[in-house]
Amino acid sequence: MADVHEVPRPRIATGHLAQHIGRPVCFVGRVEKIHPTGKLFILSDGEGKHTTVELSEPLEEEISGVVEVVGTVTNQATIMCVSYVQFREDKSPFDLEIYNEALKVIHEFPEYFPFG
Amino acid sequence: RQRIRSQNIVPCTVSQLLAAEQVDETFRIRDVEISQVTVMGIVRHAEKAPTNILYKVDDMTAAPMDVRQWVDTDEAGGENVVVPPGTYVKVAGHLRSFQNKKSLVAFKIMPLENMNEFTTHILEIVNAHMILRKNLMSASRVPQSFSSAGISDMGGYGGGGSLPVNGLTAHQSQVLSLIKNCPVPEGMSLQELKLQLHNMSMSTIKQAVEFLSSEGHIYSTVDDDHYKSTDAE
Question: Can you tell me which residues the record assigns to a coiled coil (chain B) (predicted)?
Fold first, then answer.
């Protein structure tokens, strides 16, 4: 499988998962819950809607706060995570709601914010 | 071709930089000339060499972009600290292309301390490119001119504006319009016009009638007080 980091990964919210099945995406959300096995966690987007993120290997660390996930959308509209990064919030909290509004803007004007 | 140069530093996505076309020494993104740009993304790779640090910066819009930061080897004690992979950074630099491969030469690379700046940046990209494109479009548009073809009477035009349309002022258009629409065989009288056009003095109406008549839009019928339009019904 080609390296997912070498291709465009549209930034999406939970509502867009269905339109991206089988495709690489970038999802930013707040950690709501981590499965005891560490192979699954739930993120909420800026509108509070939940997305399930799956991992091929269990998490090796405790994650919390806002996380940015890169992965592919599965047929079940979950995200198969390839990599993730925790947004730093040591100096300021991240406004996920405003980020969600920004997503609406970039989806409305793909000619000024192209993915690919 | 209209050349709109951006004197400012333009926020861009990596995908926009990769799509930029090079013409001689300049780059254009959809016809908008760019030179100094800012990008924000996550460092995927960092490699330190004696004279420069090579980063690969990823903003999700395309594959990570090469960003080179030259190190001043003469600078005493000024050692550039390498930004570790996994860090979100803001890069300011110049777009370069070598052997068809694009890269950035950075004059500034800074870790983002507040991730809300990233949200602002993506909005600034849309805003900047939209404005630059609008400026480009309006600069090349031919100034609007009033064409005489196809514009008929200005029945709905209120007030006594003097802006000529069709070569006629608003007053003249109003008078002509009334005369045109008059069904009576002997045409419209000046008195009738005065009754209909409350806002116009008799002398204004007479001036309008005189002008329209001399231009051939109307002609007098039974006497100098009655006029019909020369336009066929």
Answer: none
* DSSP-derived pairing of the beta strands B10-11 and B36-48: parallel
- Domain of residue A83, residue span: 11-64+78-109
Contact between B227 and B178 under an 8 Å Cβ cutoff? The reply is: no
Residue B131 touches chain A, beta carbons under 8 Å = no
Block residue for tokens 């609406």: A104
B175 and B133 share one domain: no
Tell me, yes or no, whether B208 and B106 share the same domain.
no
What are the C-alpha distances in Å from A3 to residues A7, A8, A70, B10, B44? 8, 11, 11, 29, 13
Other Cβ atoms within 10 Å of B118 Cβ, number: 21
Query: pTM for the whole thing?
Result: 0.71
Query: Which residues of B are less than 8 Å from A5 in CB distance?
Result: 44, 58, 63-64
User: Per residue in A21-58, pLDDT tens?
Assistant: 999 999 999 999 999 999 999 999 999 999 999 999 99
- Residue B212 covered by a domain: yes
CA distance A67 to chain B (A): 11
User: Is the CB of B137 inside 8 Å of chain A's CB atoms?
Assistant: no
| ipTM at complex level | 0.96
Structure tokens at B189: 């009288």
- Across the interface, do B15 and A114 touch by the CB < 8 Å criterion? yes
Which residues of chain A have a CB within 8 Å of the CB of B116? Answer: 92, 94-95, 98
- Domain span at B201: 170-229
**Residue B84 with chain A: CB contacts under 8 Å:** none
